[in-house]
C-alpha cells in the first residue's frame, strides 16, 4: 500500500500547484472505455471530521484513499487538509489560478453548491454517476440541494440541522428546569437564560461569521427571510427580521444573559466556552448536529440535551440545515473523470454514510443508510432528527456567498452593539442590491 501524500497548509498547496492544471496534474491519457487503466494523481480536498486515537481528524478520508489506491495501483490520491472556515476562500483562489482540485467537500454547516461555479463551468455534472434507480436511494431534499436547471452537481453524503444544545449540569446547578420535550416560546427561553446567568456563567452565546448560520433562526422566528420568494429583492430589513435580530441581541444588552463575546467570529472559542471541561461558562449554544457527537466523545462527555430554537411570532420553531457532500471539478480527460467518479461513489456509499452518521453527528443522505438505523443507541441524534421538518433552506441565489458576507458583517455590528438591529439590516440593503444588480 503506497504512502499517501498530504499537505497541512492549503495555501502552500495552492502555490505549489502551478503545474497542476484543471485536469488535475500529470496523468496518462486513456480511452474512457479503458478507464480502469488510467494512471495519475487525483487531488482531494477535505475538512476535519472526527478524530481517531491519534487525534487525526482526517483519518477517514485517508483510509478511503488508501483503499482506493490499493484497488487501482496506478492512482495516487493527494489529500489536502482544509479548515472548514477557510474552504471557500481557498477554492476561490484555486479557481482564479485554474488550480482547482479534482474533488472538494461541501461544508454541511449551511453550505450548498455554488451556482457561480456551475455557471463558470468548473463543476462537473454527476447525473450519470449513478443509475436512476441508484439516485432514488438518496433523499429528495438531499438531491435538491445539489440540483441546478435539472442537472445534479456532486454527491450528497450527509444532512445536518442546527439545534440548541443544553448543558443539563448547569441547569441542575442553577435550579432551572429544561424545556419540556425541548420546546419553548421565546419568553420562556429568555426567562430560563436569565435564571441560568450567574457569576461567570451565562445562559446563552453564539458566534456570527460568513457561511455559518447558527444565529439565523432567531432572525427567522418572527417571519424574517433575507430575500423574497423569487430571489430578486432584499427583504431582511422587514419588521419581522428586525424583530428577530432584536430578540437575539436583547439577550446580551437588555437581559445580560450572554457574554460580551457573543456575536464574534471566534468559532473555536465559542465552542470551548460551552464544551471544554475547564470552561463550561455557557449553558446553551446553537450548533449543527456534528457537535452532538463531539459532546459525546471522551474529550467532553457532557450531560446535555437537544432542544428546539425558541418559538417567536411565527408560532412554530424553525431552524437551518445543510447537506454535506462532495463536488467534482472540471475534467479534461474522460478516463480520469470516470476514475474520479469512482472515488466519489466510494466515499458516498451506503456503508460509508453509516460510518459518518455514527461518528460525525450527521444524518445520512441515503435511504438505505437510514434503514440501517445508525442512531438506535444515540437518543441525542434521534432527537435532532425530529427537527428536520423545521428546516428553512439557504437562498439559492448565484451571488449568495457575497450577499451572505454583507449581511453577516452587519449582524456582527448589531451583536457588538455598534448598530441597532434596524440600522444593521437596513445598511445591508444597498450593498446587497448592488450585488444583485438592482
From TrEMBL:
One of its GO terms (biological process) is maltose transport. One of its GO terms (molecular function) is maltose binding. PROSITE patterns: PROKAR_LIPOPROTEIN (PS51257). Residues 426-438 have a biased composition (Basic and acidic residues). Residues 417-438 are annotated as: Disordered. Residues 1-22 form the signal peptide. Pfam families: SBP_bac_8 (PF13416). Belongs to the bacterial solute-binding protein 1 family. This is ABC transporter substrate-binding protein. It comes from Alkalihalobacillus alcalophilus ATCC 27647 = CGMCC 1.3604.
Amino acid at each position: 500500500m503506497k504512502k499517501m501524500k498530504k499537505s497541512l497548509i492549503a495555501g502552500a498547496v495552492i502555490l505549489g500547484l502551478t503545474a497542476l492544471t484543471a485536469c488535475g496534474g500529470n496523468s496518462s491519457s486513456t480511452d474512457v472505455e479503458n478507464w480502469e487503466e488510467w494512471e495519475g494523481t487525483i487531488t482531494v480536498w477535505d475538512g476535519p471530521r472526527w478524530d481517531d486515537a491519534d487525534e487525526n481528524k482526517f483519518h477517514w478520508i485517508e483510509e478511503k484513499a488508501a483503499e482506493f489506491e490499493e484497488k487501482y495501483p496506478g492512482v495516487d490520491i493527494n489529500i489536502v487538509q482544509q479548515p472548514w472556515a477557510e474552504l471557500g476562500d481557498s477554492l476561490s483562489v484555486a479557481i482564479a489560478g485554474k488550480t482547482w482540485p479534482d474533488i472538494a467537500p461541501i461544508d454541511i454547516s449551511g453550505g450548498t453548491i455554488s451556482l457561480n461555479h456551475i455557471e463558470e463551468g468548473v463543476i462537473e455534472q454527476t447525473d450519470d454517476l449513478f443509475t436512476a434507480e441508484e439516485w432514488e436511494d438518496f433523499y429528495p431534499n438531499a438531491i435538491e440541494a445539489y440540483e441546478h436547471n435539472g442537472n445534479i452537481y456532486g454527491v450528497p453524503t450527509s444532512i445536518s440541522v442546527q439545534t440548541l444544545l443544553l448543558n443539563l449540569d448547569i441547569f441542575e446547578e442553577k435550579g432551572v428546569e429544561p424545556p419540556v420535550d425541548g420546546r419553548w416560546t421565546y419568553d420562556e427561553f429568555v426567562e430560563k437564560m436569565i435564571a441560568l446567568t450567574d457569576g461567570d456563567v451565562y445562559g446563552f452565546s453564539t458566534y456570527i461569521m460568513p457561511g455559518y448560520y447558527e444565529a439565523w433562526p432567531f432572525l427567522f422566528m418572527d417571519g424574517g427571510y433575507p430575500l423574497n420568494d423569487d430571489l430578486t429583492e432584499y427583504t431582511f430589513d422587514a419588521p419581522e427580521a428586525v424583530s428577530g435580530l432584536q430578540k437575539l441581541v436583547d439577550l446580551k444588552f437588555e437581559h445580560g444573559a450572554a457574554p460580551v463575546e457573543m456575536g464574534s467570529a471566534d468559532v473555536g472559542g465559542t465552542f470551548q466556552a460551552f464544551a471544554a471541561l475547564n470552561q463550561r461558562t455557557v449553558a446553551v449554544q446553537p450548533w449543527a448536529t456534528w457537535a452532538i457527537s463531539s459532546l459525546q466523545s471522551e474529550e467532553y462527555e457532557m450531560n446535555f440535551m437537544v432542544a428546539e430554537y425558541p418559538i417567536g411570532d411565527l408560532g412554530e420553531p424553525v431552524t437551518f440545515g445543510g447537506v454535506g457532500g462532495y463536488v467534482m471539478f472540471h475534467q479534461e480527460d474522460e478516463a480520469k473523470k470516470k476514475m474520479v467518479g469512482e472515488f466519489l461513489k466510494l466515499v458516498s456509499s451506503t456503508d460509508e454514510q453509516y460510518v459518518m452518521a455514527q461518528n460525525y453527528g450527521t444524518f445520512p443522505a441515503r435511504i438505505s443508510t437510514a434503514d440501517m438505523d445508525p442512531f438506535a443507541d444515540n437518543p441525542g441524534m434521534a432527537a435532532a432528527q425530529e427537527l428536520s421538518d423545521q428546516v428553512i433552506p439557504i437562498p439559492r441565489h448565484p451571488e449568495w456567498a457575497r450577499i451572505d458576507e454583507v449581511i453577516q458583517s452587519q449582524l456582527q455590528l448589531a451583536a457588538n452593539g455598534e448598530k441597532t438591529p434596524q440600522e444593521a439590516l437596513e445598511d445591508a440593503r444597498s450593498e446587497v442590491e448592488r450585488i444583485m444588480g438592482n
